[in-house]
Amino acid sequence: MTVVALPKRGFIDSLPGGPAVTQGLAWxxxxxxxxxxxxxxxxxxxAIFANQIAPHDHRIGDLDLVKRPPAWIGDKIxxxxxxxxxxxxxxxxxxxxxxxxxxxxxxxxxTFLEGGGDGTVDVGDKLRxxxxxxxxxxxxxxxxxxxxxxxxxxxxxxRVSLTVSVLAIALGGGLGVILGLLAAYKGGITDTLIMRLVxxxxxxxxxxxxxxxxxxxxxxxxTVIIVISVLLWARYARVVRGEAISIMNRDFxxxxxxxxxxxxxxxxxxxxxxxMNTVVVLATLEVGxxxxxxxxxxxxxxxxxxxxxxxxVMVADGRELIVAAWWIFFFPCVAIVLTVLSMNLMxxxxxxxxxxxxxxx
Amino acid sequence: MxxxxxxxxxxxxxxxxxxxxxxxxxxxxxxxxxxxxLPDEASEEQILQTQIEWGLxxxxxxxxxxxxxxxxxxxxxxxxxxxxxxxxxxxxxRLPATVQLSAFALLISAAIxxxxxxxxxxxxxxxxDYAGKMVAILGQSAPSFALGLILMWVFAVQLDWxxxxxxxGLSHMVxxxxxxxxxxxxxxxxxxxxxxxxxxxxEYVKLARIKGVSERRVIWKHCxxxxxxxxxxxxxxxxxxxxxxxVVTETVxxxxxxxxxxxxxxxxxDFTVVQAVVLLFAFxxxxxxxxxxxxxxxxxxxxxxx
Lengths: 361, 306
Fold this sequence. Notes:
Structural class of chain B: mainly alpha
CATH topology of chain B: MetI-like fold
CATH architecture of chain B: Orthogonal Bundle
Distance between the termini of chain A: 22 Å
Number of domains of chain B: 1
Structural class of chain A: alpha+beta
CATH architecture of the largest domain in chain A: Orthogonal Bundle
Order of helices and strands of chain B: HHHHHHHHHHHHH
Shape of chain B: elongated
Strand content of chain A: 5-15%
Order of helices and strands of chain A: HHHHEEHEEHHHHHHHH
CATH class of the largest domain in chain A: Mainly Alpha
Strand order of the largest sheet of chain A: 2-1-4-3
Distance between the termini of chain B: 13 Å
Oligomer: heterodimer
CATH class of chain B: Mainly Alpha
Helix content of chain B: over 70%
Number of strands of chain B: 0
Number of domains of chain A: 2
CATH superfamily of the largest domain in chain A: MetI-like
Radius of gyration of chain A: 29 Å
CATH superfamily of chain B: MetI-like
Helix content of chain A: 55-70%
Radius of gyration of chain B: 24 Å
Largest sheet of chain B: none
Shape of chain A: elongated
């Protein structure tokens, strides 16, 4: 563990409870607190307690409240003059057709500014039109085109990201570790075969392989997990093999062999524990990658199917409404970027602590 | 050197063969294309006839050999979705758009990454350096579809500086180009920075400074040229990243290139087109990798012996 300079003893320490503050500051410098908090509150806690903390049902929306903006955005009001007919090719903000003005009057989203003395809408009247109603705190991040609460969907979506990353990394990482160990330990033809396979895998653009694989089976959670783990194993295998070979040169391996330990026992009990740091660092560094892959697949329509609120699916839903309702695509994007960013920072920190050698991969 | 080139080429060829097998096998288990091709009420006979017509009644390995035989004659097969149009024609039609966009993205990456990389190296440990690092980390944390959509929202929808999508003049290329190139900017910038720092620390740079060479000349003439070697070899890999990225970026910006084509084909289960495009991508990807490796081995002879 590296020694981190503590803040100088000074004013704070003279206060009651001061040393604790100083300690806290030192602690804050030593650990990646911010990324940690973000991960906890954007990914882990929402995923575990989704049913408890989601304010609304993420599956059923309120059709009276579709495409509501986030709470802090007020009504969008424009002044419009009533015209008989609007040229569709040059739709002007300042004009409204007679028919739609009458309709809006009935619904109460338009009021008279000028004219309208007779109570009916005529050509030439000026209206104050609420073209988009503001948000409410009932739906803090707004609603989508089916009136579903975006916050609740984001919360449930974190489940998908967490499940996919944990399982895909466990599966792909496990496979990679086993193959890497085998390649290092057995050597010869096994080694050549496995490493050639790694080369071929790494020579193939991963998103393309994932797309073809998902399309080959049915899109779904399980398919996505398996496909992503197929993409992940090669890197593990390569790194683990390299590490394992250097460990095998050490004396205790020879002694275990002389003592009559079986191959599997040596791999599992003598080599693997020494690889733990590497494996943990690789796993953390890969989480961001996995979340990006999963959301990209879902975005392209070849990942998690609707109506599961995976973040990528939510972005795809919001894409067509980018002009009218930016919040539908924007918040899931923020969730993805925040999670991946924090995970990468966390991974970097962990790597520097546990296994600085991995800096170059 | 010759042996090294030969070995790398053989490896590449092997990879291509394996990939062609994998893609072929996968495309065939995607589901029966006759179901997509024919209307629901098609009779048994019609289905059978279509299967014979497309050669789908033969065993898988025979189908593969027929496929390879045709491939060597340059025949990539006909599309199911686009009413029998040869896949090669579809590719020829879409290829220019992808090449254009990728070249533009490459240009943007280089134009931004090199100067900024030099700047942050010279201003090491200052605010500029940290800002550069932040931008780079952020860039590598955003999936390209999110980045593309955010760019589209800010610069096309809100500011109305560029068109939202489609292919047209230069203005159509800016947003997809930036979205596609951004990831590379981050990586290239970091490489340029670290290799600049290394060169800035050498004896001959110190000597140049002692001799009184102007700082600008030291940085651009003495350092930058030597620092370029590492990022330049990486430049080839960027081609590979661009291929992968084009699939997503072209879909986001409705850019009529190969990436968008492959997505359409996958969703429509048009496996001849999928195979053709994937093979082309894989081939380009592998070719670029080999060229980069050879270039690298040429620059740094130690590589060859490892």
